[in-house]
């Protein structure tokens, strides 16, 4: 990879990190909304639950709220996925920055070393 390619890669990764941050915010909001709906659904289901033992009522409520829980769990998973993807992009950025620093150091050594002949 040349220095020019590394700079282009760094700019591309920077854009991807910005997009990843926006995705992360989106899924955090979605997760919060789904969690809220799930808790409201649970409360309402407990109010409608038929008489029975506590485990029977809990099983009934869980069945009633299965779709809400699935939506919450999916949003939570997507939030984790976007977090991992963002970390990967940031690691790639760091590696590219290190490569650019190495190019700079190599150019400096080549330019100012005693073996340098114009």
List the defining traits of the structure above.
118 residues; mainly alpha; rod-shaped
Give a quick rundown of the structure.
This protein has helices at 3-48, 54-64, 66-112. With 118 residues, it is mostly helical.
Write the layout of secondary structure elements.
Layout lengths: L2 H46 L5 H11 L1 H47 L6
Helix pairs in contact: 1-2, 1-3
Account of the 3D structure:
- By secondary structure, this protein is mostly helical.
- The protein has one domain (3-10, 24-106).
- It has three helices and no strands.
- The chain has helices at residues 3-48, 54-64, 66-112.
- Helix 1 (3-48) packs across helix 2 (54-64) and helix 1 (3-48) packs antiparallel against helix 3 (66-112).
- The longest helix has 47 residues, at 66-112.
- The radius of gyration is 26 Å and the shape is rod-shaped.
- 8% of the residues are buried.
- The model has no long low-confidence stretch (mean pLDDT 90).
The tally of strands reads 0
Give the rounded overall mean pLDDT. 90
Determine the structural class based on helices, strands and strand pairing: mainly alpha
- Rg calc: 26 Å
- The count of domains is 1
Helix content: over 70%
Using the alpha-carbon principal axes, give the shape. rod-shaped
